[in-house]
């Protein structure tokens, strides 16, 4: 918006809405710092964690974020994302801890059914090992309720038992934004400060705050194949199968994760404003449109979360 142009009624309402979401997120981030001894912020370098990091920067200031950043790396992440993760952490003067699924495989705590199996679901094991190693009592994540049904059932302060498991029927009430943060030895919380945000909110906030993102989020040329209604990127980890036609298309990623299960969508959106327009017209959730491992039932996702998944 031009500095000399008066904001429209819609823009004023949008800013009020984003201000309210930002205020809630900052409150939760500060509440975690006050209530827990050893919290950490899960930071992948993706758009949701970058939005949280921006709110943390506003809450505490550059170089003053009171908890370390933690990433569980499958070893199959896009280098554009991990490079940006390292850059952003260094820029903020934040401590970055990286733990790898590959290290869990070397220890024998993760065993793949076959070499080509996705490591995405096995991040749970490495995460629980990191929790034990550093004795984290709260892990701040970027999950949102609009992503899928199992996540919609989760509280903002989501209790985990001493085995790292989530019990949906044992979650604590959160009336009037009051959080019960009491823990027994060995238990911890997963905290989701942007639970109430939507994909559209995230992109409008990125546009407003001019948050820099990995280049994968914007349009670029990429070799892909069509498979089961998805555009699968052609990589060393996800090669084209016999009979598939490789095409170079203009695509972007709505969400980024393990290469073996993350797909782009066709798009010419080159800016956050362009993506806001696309998101308004989208009729499929970002995970439903882009994740090969999310073609499962709500019950299946709940089981993964009960086993310690994000």
Please give a structural write-up.
The chain has two domains: 9-200 and 298-306, HUPs (Rossmann fold, 3-Layer(aba) Sandwich); 215-294, no CATH class. It has ten helices and ten strands. It has helices spanning 9-35, 47-60, 79-92, 101-107, 123-134, 149-152, 199-209, 272-281, 286-290, 298-306, and strands spanning 39-42, 69-73, 96-100, 138-140, 157-160, 188-191, 220-227, 230-233, 247-252, 265-266. A six-stranded mixed β-sheet has the order 3-2-1-4-6-5, sandwiched between helices. A four-stranded antiparallel β-sheet has the order 8-7-9-10, with no helix packed on it. It is globular and about 55 Å long. The two termini are 37 Å apart.
Secondary structure: elements and pairs:
Layout: H1 9-35, E1 39-42, H2 47-60, E2 69-73, H3 79-92, E3 96-100, H4 101-107, H5 123-134, E4 138-140, H6 149-152, E5 157-160, E6 188-191, H7 199-209, E7 220-227, E8 230-233, E9 247-252, E10 265-266, H8 272-281, H9 286-290, H10 298-306
Parallel strand pairs: 1-2, 1-4, 2-3, 4-6
Antiparallel strand pairs: 5-6, 7-8, 7-9, 9-10
Helix pairs in contact: 1-2, 7-8
Features:
single chain; Rossmann fold; 15% strand; 6-stranded mixed beta sheet; 10 helices; 2 domains; alpha/beta
């Amino acid at each position: 918006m031009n500095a000399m142009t008066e904001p429209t009624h819609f823009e004023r309402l949008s800013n009020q809405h984003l201000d309210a979401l930002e205020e809630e997120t900052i409150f939760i981030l500060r509440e975690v710092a006050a209530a827990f001894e050893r919290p950490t912020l899960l930071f992948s370098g993706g758009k949701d964690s970058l939005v949280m990091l921006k709110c943390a920067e506003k809450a505490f200031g550059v170089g003053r974020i009171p908890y370390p950043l933690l990433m569980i790396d499958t070893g199959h992440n896009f280098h554009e994302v991990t490079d940006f993760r390292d850059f952003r952490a260094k820029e903020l003067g934040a401590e970055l801890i990286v733990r790898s699924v590959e290290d869990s495989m070397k220890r024998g705590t993760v065993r793949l059914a076959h070499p080509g199996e996705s490591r995405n679901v096995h991040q749970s094991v490495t995460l629980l090992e990191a929790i034990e190693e550093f004795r984290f009592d709260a892990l701040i994540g970027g999950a949102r309720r609009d992503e899928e049904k199992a996540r919609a059932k989760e509280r903002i302060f989501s209790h985990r038992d001493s085995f790292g498991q989530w019990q949906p029927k044992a979650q604590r009430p959160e009336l009037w934004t009051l959080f019960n943060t009491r823990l027994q030895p060995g238990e911890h919380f997963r905290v989701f400060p942007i639970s109430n945000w939507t994909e559209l909110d995230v992109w409008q906030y990125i546009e407003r705050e001019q948050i820099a993102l990995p280049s994968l989020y914007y349009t670029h040329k990429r070799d892909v194949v069509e498979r089961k209604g998805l555009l699968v990127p052609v990589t060393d980890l996800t090669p084209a199968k016999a009979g598939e036609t490789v095409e170079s298309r203009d695509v972007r990623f709505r969400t980024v994760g393990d290469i073996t299960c993350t797909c782009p969508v066709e798009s010419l959106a080159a800016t956050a404003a362009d993506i806001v327009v696309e998101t308004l017209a989208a009729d499929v959730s970002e995970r439903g449109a882009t994740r090969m491992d999310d073609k499962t039932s709500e019950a299946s996702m709940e089981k993964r979360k009960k086993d310690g998944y994000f």
